[in-house]
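Notebook, p. 212. Picked up where the previous page left off. The plan for this session was modest: take the two constructs that came back from the sequencing core last week, fold each one, and keep the raw output in the notebook itself so nobody has to go hunting through shared drives later. Recording the first one now, exactly as returned: residue sequence, then the structure token string.
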Amino acid sequence: MNFFDRLRFFFREAAPSLRAQRRVALILLICQGGITVSGAIVRVTGSGLGCVTWPNCHPGSLVPLKGAAPLVHQAIEFGNRLLTFVIAAAAIAAVVAMHMACRRRELKVYAWLNVAGVVLQALIGALSVILELQWWAVALHFLPSMLLVWLAAMLYIRINEPDDGTPQRVFPQAISTLGAIAAAALAVVLATGTMVTGSGVHSGDAGVGMEGRLNVDPQAMAITHAICMYVYLFFTVVTVILIFRHRLDPKIKTAGLVLLAVILMQWGIGVFQYYMHIPRWTVPIHVAFSSIVTACTAILWARGIIRTGGEPASATGSPAGDAKRAAYLENSARKKVTG
């Protein structure tokens, strides 16, 4: 059996363990959040048009060209584009892992949506370059990334739940309702955040002034964004208080406290930005915490309905995956003995 035959046999017969699946999902989650940070670095360094075409960097050239634009701008923008392939690989790995382990449809859907989202984001990125970084095109590029972070976080947290378990509602209806309101408020916070950026000084390209920017008062927009943040924080605080009053699982309480902590850190960064007139170096940090807040909100939301029961010592989280994994390990052991 040659290398390619062995590879095909592995992907057809093997089933990754729960730990391996979680690792793949965690890598995907980090990648989905990480590319938003690299995109922010593109913006604050004015590298958005370091590559002026898509998919090529410059007409007739897939890679940066000497003298076509400042080399550092080309390197930053081209590096950001290359990260798309890293995320695509992570998303495909998640899909492969879910199918190899014979996981339930919910997990496969999360994984496939991440693949579809990467493709969509690549197209939106091309649109933003073609439109020379119009503010709404850049905002349209950022917001789906937050949705993909949410989906990756849901995949990560739900992998450990057994496929043959029974879904059970953990949160009382009041907590579920408040959690939904908080999640909707977060979406508004993220949307208004893109408007603050769209009306501000960081255009994304060193050669672009305020043309193509959102024509509103940046200070008023920042205050609107802050008000939305306070609304989101209020509903989250009330949700966490109710979680403690109902004496739910300690893991849920921890998730709530972690979420409140990262929201407060994000709030502190935002206040600092406002009074210091948005220093460039703070923007990637603020964007990074946007991903962290979104992921933590998704994790707390996922705790509201969990699967219980099922096989307590499951290796893959799926009865079919466990049988497949056991057969693969048995065949592998037999081959080692005989050969």
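Okay, moving on. Second construct, recorded in the same format:
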Amino acid sequence: MSSRSSPRDTIRLTGLTATGHHGVFDFEKREGQIFRVDAELTLDLRAAGRSDALPDTVSYVEIAELIHAAITGEPFDLIEALADHLAREILATDQRLLAAEITVHKPQAPLAQTFEDVSVTARRDRSDLPAAGDHATDSVSAAEPGPSLDPEAAPAGEVTAVLALGSNLGESAVTLASAVAALDRAEAVRVLRASPLARTSPVGGPAGQPDFHNQVLEVSTTLSPHALLACTQAIEQDHHRARGVENGEVRWGPRTLDIDIITYGRARISSITLQVPHPRAGIRGFVLVPWTWMDPRAQLDGTPVAELARQAADAKSVERLESVR
């Protein structure tokens, strides 16, 4: 009897629905319509089955958020491109994912005929992703992510992390300057360098919200990943950030201050509260473009940040403001 190969277990998200503006016609981008996405993710669930512990599996909450952000974010002309983008982006969030099958439904497609649905399906596996290490560099922030790290464990020495800041309520430029100063004053954190400010259009979320001010920082810290997260969230709260729907915050909506941990050294972290590298950083022009201003040689998951920035759908909306550091 032959031994069993690695199992091909599945996580499915079916019928995730949101309004997007994808399509080749101007009225589709202007008026928007309903899109529905089904995701089938292939991975090995044996560890999670034995441990009954969330860190041993892939968070479907994060996957659902990524799908929602793609549907409601910057538009694609073709749903083929949206499906391809989602499949690759989902695979890039976690090395434990072996393959992703994404079906994008467009039930209100502009057809003259009577129909129930139009859909496309993209199937991608890890061979479809860029090989890590294809772009060598000696930049500090360019190292490929290493093995998984205990997010509660303090590092043996200083670790360099990249943070992304955003604000679109109140005096946003003042808020970001205050947040940078607060990080530099925080125990066991030093701000090494900061990008110029950027003004960017909102991506996803409710219509009509103000433009964002964004900034990317490189910091050095001896805090554990979760301790650094607690530090950034405390600074958000000091600037009147209210997290969660129960506190009146709208997902992808306006906020006084948002601080995301993009990278933490070379670590990969997957916990209930923290995913590093940030699972959506590679598609966010409002993160990638300022990051290139700060460090033109930076890499994310082995790919130059400048290359990712050129591919980001919202990159053209990123406007450079004056340098602040």
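Notes on construct two before I forget. The longest strand covers residues 9-20.
Flagging for discussion at group meeting.
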